[in-house]
Every structure is written in C-alpha cells, then in structure tokens.
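Reopening: structure tokens for the zinc ion complex, inputs below.
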Amino acid sequence: MTEGPTARYKAWLVYSKLGGKIVKRISAKSRRVNIDLQELLGKKFTGFDTYGKNILFIFERYGIRLHLMMYGTIHIYGEGEELRKDPKLIKLDITLDTHRLVVYNAPIVEIDYAYTLTRRLKKMVGEDPLRDDWDPERAMKLILRNQDKKIGEVLLDQRVIAGVGNILRNEILFRARIHPDRLVRELNKEDVKRIVDISEKLLREWFELKKRGEKISQTILIYGKSGKPCPVCGTPIRFYRQKPHNRRTYFCPKCQK
Ligand SMILES: [Zn+2]
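Re-run output (same inputs, fresh job):
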C-alpha cells in the first residue's frame, strides 16, 4: 500500500540515484502516452515531484506520471544486471546512461509535457502536506466542503488531503481523538484544525523516517491492533469496516468521540 510519504520517498530515492542522467532508451506499455516517446531520447532527468500518491518524474520539458496503487513497483538495475521480475509485467523501461529504471505493474503510466501533467495533477488532488505549496487553511476548507460525510471517509478522498491512505487516516483520527463516523458538520473548527495539523505532522514524520531508513511501524498506535489495549487509556481497540468503502477501521471507544 503506497501512501503519500511512501510515494514521495520512492521518487526521492530514484532521483537521488539517477538524477542528471540522460535517456538512452525508453519504452512504455500504456494508453496514456501522449507524445512521441522518441522525443525523450537524449533528455536529462532533471527533477521529481509528488502530488499525493502520484509520482512525477521530469525530463527537461517532458514528464512521466506514475501511480503505483497496490501492486506497482519501481526497480533500478545497474549495467548488465538481470531483471528480477517477469518482463511481461513491465509498464515502463528507461535506460538512463548505464542504469535501467523499470516500473512493474503500475496501473498508471502517463507521459506528456511536464506542464500539462502538472496542471492536471493540481486540479486532480487536494492539499498535500509534503509539498512546498501546502496550504493548511485550504485543507480545512476542503474538509468542510463535505458537511454530510463521515470524517473517516473524507480523509480518504485524495481531493481533500492528498496522500492520506487507510493506515494514516486511522492514526490521524486516533491522535485527534475523533471517531471516524463523526460527520464533518458535527466537528468544530478546532477539531478540523487538529486533524489538519496532525496530518501534516504525521505525513512529514513518515517521509523523514523513510529517508533515514527507519521503520514507520514505530508510529503505528492503533492500525491492525484490534483487541489490544489503547496506548492512552488501556481500553481494547475496536475494529470494523467503515461504509461506504468497507475500509479497515480501528478506534478507541473511550478516547475517540
Ligand atoms: Zn483510549
């Protein structure tokens, strides 16, 4: 499961290894190739960005957008190194100088001009705490637009806080002491601000831990801990699948109201 911090970490890792290198070969298996791939030959890998769970690799004026969803993976192979997965699963294969960047199984590989992809991504996703343009005030407004929805559902909507996946939303609501079934209209301004502040803190913490090679499991307080004592009050953690998306939901019946 790739949540925002994992997507950003993967993008950062690829760029830290291959940034500045030149495209020598490229092939893609995708219906979203909107330019002639040959135009990318000779172009330099100049940057990366992420929008929630979307990764954007930039090659001068061109861009490649990836969404890994559940099963997509990115591999870097050195010169002469053998592929470690079935070549039939390859969605994108780029030789950058002597290295090979191979993306397997990603459901979205979109190739276009970088500005076109950027413009589209900005419309597609909400506020992302990992981006420089993060605007917490706007994130609060985006939550408050969903008055009649459950906060647990709203936090999964990538058009609200981008990059929050199922584990993060459980951990955010536990820390904010808010029950996932509470409707947005039942929350006061302080509740919404607390949710936004904790989201920012936790997403950034995950990204930093990953960069340092440390495990994020140390930050998991309730996800997957059904029946175990709440780390705050000792009450057993409860589990259910929240409608309408049937996502795995954990909460402390005493701490979260
Ligand atoms: Zn508790």
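The two ends are 28 Å apart (CA to CA). The first helix runs from residue 4 to 18. Marking as resolved unless the reporter disagrees.
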